Fold this protein.
Amino acid sequence: MPDNQFDTGGTLIVGAGLAGLFTALKLAPRPCTVLSPEPIGVGASSAWAQGGIAAAVGLGDTAEAHAADTVAAGAGLVDADIALGVTSEGAARIFDLLDYGAPFDRDEEGRLLQSKEAAHSTNRVVRVSGDGAGRAIMDALIRTVRDTPSITLLEGVVVDDLAVAEGICVGAFGRLVADPMASPIHFRADQVVLATGGIGGLYAVSTNPARVRGQGVGMAARAGAVIADSEFVQFHPTGIAVDRDPCPLATEALRGHGATLIDADGHRFMFDVDPAGELAPRDIVARAIHARVAAGQPVFLDTREAIGPAILEEFPTVAGYCIAAGIDPVTQPIPVRPAQHYHMGGILTDAVGRATLPGLWACGEVTSTGLHGANRLASNSLLEAVVFAARIAEDIAGRDPRPAARRIALPPPAHGPAPRQEPETAIAELRAVMDRHVGVVRNRAGLTEALATLARIEADNAPGSRALLNMTTAATLIAAAALIRTESRGGHYRDDLPDTDPAQATRSRLTQAEALAIRAEAAG
């Protein structure tokens, strides 16, 4: 085999966050190869998750109640069967994580401690040290992965394109971060699983790692996969309003513990907006804060009375962010603003994680499974990742390995070496226009301007940068879907069309070709 080809001998997993690592562990002892652009665990959004995992494991809670809350939060677009299936498997996946060493918080009698977050009807979020669930879970999985001989872990590899031959995904093309000018590496695989994360890096203000910028959605769409619900982007209401990229996050669990949102005069304004106050669904809280911040009125998260000095021990991650920014959360309210946080849309998958492109599976935030609808219920993201990772592993394990003689030849790479430097000015412009026009509040004029700007950025820069092409493709899918959804629903809010239209209570589906046609018409 040529030096620039790598035969996985089985399954290729692109991405080493929670979804990717859990898939690899569930596949064992079946061989797989996991690719990560950075040292494992460093650049994954999973490690930054503060709240925890929602699962019906508490006394009196049920999968049915959890599914009902999920459906209610999703603003009419949740697939009820998917929701009940996922919540029914939640307890089993929590016990898997415990077996892998996740140190979930327990009470004095050894029972799992659970907290309440917005739009949940009961306490059902399993946490670690208050706000450290993501990091602790990832650390446990990383240790287990490194001790599992069936898993080949390759760090420092960026994937820019999927390899498609005869209409089947047969691998991927990657490059070494340390030697970007080298020829692309062909990764041959019987199955490809995308677990590349979300689209946070497409926005100037995001709580996600900058490298997580829609590459999975972009490369899958360019390879022919259908993308669903891409217009639905969740903005966390309480990003900490300091000059940092990514934006540090003040977990929703703080409001679950009684923290309040106040204006400069100390007024709790959320009850003027929604009877649930600070525990209203995230989209409602985010818009309320956005309106005030956009009008030049600062907003604060006040933990002083409800949590007080305990924030230093119970929520050490948030406290650390505050202290690093010169804020004392024990004596001062925390300035906050909405920040892009999660993408409900992504690669359309079926109930076992198969994409519409044969040979391709996907799990985690890169997907649209039907669980989240138009507005994700808090702490359902990590649950979805592990449930679908386990389903994908079971689906793949039930297939016979493809004999070498029957393997389809890899197509030639679609590109040469990466540019010596990515077009940072163009990337910054893309992130700014997404924040400005495809953010918390949208309208036709802004979306049209965003699509025209994306077309220009792509024409001027993308031919020399596959990374930027994946970004412009993903951003175009989001803006195009937002333009053609002529209503407001969940995480998609248009101030020129503020009402919800019952006739549009259907999930959106777009191909790359369809999104480009919408962009061309808007830009024309």
Q: What stands out?
A: Residues 80-99 form the longest helix (20 residues).
